[in-house]
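User: Second chain of the day. Same drill as before.
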Amino acid sequence: MTITNLTTYGGVTNYFKTVPVTEAISLEAPASSDEYTFNNWSGCTSATDMTCYIDMNSDMTVTATYTPSIEVLEVKSSGASGVDIGSTTGDGGTTTYIKEHANGYNAVLVAPVTWGSGAFSSWTGCTTTIANTCNVTVSGATSVTANYVPASNEIFTNGFENPL
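Assistant: Same format as last time:
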C-alpha cells in the first residue's frame, strides 16, 4: 500500500521515517487497493476521510486500516423458481439468493439441466459459460440468472406425442 505525502514522508507500508520534532505533516491513504477498502486511521493527532494529520512531539506510530471489500453476488432464475443451483466453490443455493464475497472472487455455479417442467437454456451475467456451468468474477454488485424454458412435446396429426 502506498501512503502519499507532499514532502518526503510518504512510503510503501510498512515503513519508518524520521521526522523532526514539532513538524506537522499529513499522510494520505488511497481509498482502496486490490480487494480492500480504506476504513480509518489510528494514532493520528487528527484525521479526516483518508488524511492523517500528525503534530510530531514524540515517537509516533500511525496505522491506516483497510477491510476486505465485500461485494454481493445475486443468483436468480427465470422461467423457473426455487431452482437448486449447485457450486464447486460453495456458492450454491435456492434461487433467488445472495452471497457476499471480496471483489475479484471467482464463483462457479451449476444449474440443473431440468427443473420442474422447465429445461435449462442459458446463463446471463456470467463471465464465461460452458453448457449449464457459469463462471463469474464478482466485481461490484454482480447478478447472474439461470434461464429456463418450458419443456415441450410435439403433437403430430395422428395424436401421438413425441417428447423433444
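The chain has two domains: 2-68, 70-151.

User: Great, on to the next one.
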